[in-house]
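Annex B, item 7. Sequence and structure tokens for protein A, then protein B.
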Amino acid sequence: MSSIVALLVGISTVWASPYFTSLRNDVSVPEKCRDMKLSFYSLPAELVFFGRKGGLSMGFSMEYPVSRQNATTLWHYFKSLTHGEEDVFLLDKILNDPELKRDYDIIVHSFEDQDFDFASEGEILEVLAIHDLYQDFPENIYYITGGVEYHESHSPMTIGEVDIFVGRRDTCEAVVVGEVKLGRRTTLNKAKKQIHRFENFLIDHNASGFGGIYKSSRF
């Protein structure tokens, strides 16, 4: 009987939200906001398409100044840290390069609370994008997370994933929603299609569509 109860509790936890499943246990998110709901999208959130260094010239709305090569180096290190034996030789290289060390310090400060395990290279830019967005959205008012899949009610089939979610701490409501891509224009086109699919999902479920592209005053 106890095993049946445990199974039911597990199912209840996974499907706490009928339309959203978080892929990360992000403890930086206010507890009341961790179970994402359609009501979080009652107002038209703005969109952000976040790229790496040079992203603005490729059509992204925001960029973080990390090169693809440096992102790959950081990924190999943090993947070794979270999936096996830490690569201390690669760490030495990172700590002796000013740009790599800058981004290493940002990532190492927050990746555990945000529950990144670096299974994919793009997670490097996701951590850096979250850090960068906090310059526009003060942490005492907003929270920034991502890695949330959406699906039909209680369905195991994923429709898509939200990379970036900026919400208000008081109401949990979405302010900005976006995609993060390490690639070039072809990946930007893919990101736009993914966001369009998510917008259609929201509208189909009586939530608000999006309200345009977010423009940071820093760019």
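Protein B:
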Amino acid sequence: MPRRLRRPRALVWTLALALPACGACVGGSSPVDDAAEPAAPVEEMPADFQASAAWAELEMLAALGPRTPGSDAAEAARRRIRDYLERYGVPVETVDTVATPDGLPPVALTHVLARLPGTSADRFVLVAPYDSGRHEGFDFVGTNDGASGTAVLLEVARVLARREFPYTVEIVFLDGEGRLGQGEGDVANSRWWGSRTLAETWQQGGRLDDVRLLVSVNRVCDAELAIARDLGSHRNYREEFWRAARRLGETESFVPHAGYESFTSSHAAFRERGLRAVVGLADTAFGGAEAPGVYAGTADDLPMHCAEESLASVGAVIVDALDTIAARLAKIDRFSVRPEPTRPSTETAAAAESGDDAPADADTSNADSAETPAAEATPTS
């Protein structure tokens, strides 16, 4: 199917090319910190998703250069993420995990977690990588594959922070999702260590049990954006994003009746740990009609091959779909409340003897597992 070419926005990329890679910075300072435009005050920012704000963060993350785990650029990226979130009153913390690739020393990873408390402690989790993979022979900037999901989710966090949401939302910016680039063969090509280690940590701590939905976002700024319909995603939840796209007129990015694909992204690690309610959002072909596309995994993964309109489309669809899914689940939860038999207290017994009405205690358990079907299929890659 032909893919519409969106016109990339005029860039300040020449500034980034003139700056040294942050891996060479002293003391972890970022060469682009002073170049960043100050964000508008909270009260001046519109309530809906602002693609221009997401695009500005995309450009700044790309200008940091390769953001490999443990580098100065990765630390600078974490500062940018934290600064953006805290500017809009979003609580932020870091989560440390350790990857243990075969035959290599352990790799320390630092994820940034934003938490938006909701009416329920049950969680909606959104994840995206902020790092870039390591490649030999060239500096891999990782704009589309590594920065685009983070740029979108930063704006989504700002939008959701202004709303009353039925569920607690956690947005995790993952370290260590890019190509490892160390060792040989399969080890050097392996990736997704951040999501693997976080999924394992959460499973061991029982923190997957209250996740109602997990959405991963990456490779979403291609100027020829066409989000893949992932077979490994939960069928009903995945299709809600396509329904949201139809409501919003974003069918060029979320193509109706598009064929199904199997791809691996950050959601796969959580699915493998038993979490069924996952959705992966990614374009599998960067700069072409067939995967992986001409720019994927190359030195050309740069903002000049991306478009602000693509971020606008994905961001708006995410917010709309999350609202719809949350409202539906909240309605199910309200109807799933059942009274819990309890031994009457002294006061309750006295009231019963006198003929007064006494309220019964009830347990608010969720019935999501009884209401949502299984995913369509297990991906082959």
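Comment on protein B: Strands lie at 92-99, 107-116, 120-129, 167-174, 211-217, 229-230, 260-261, 278-281, 338-339, 362-363.
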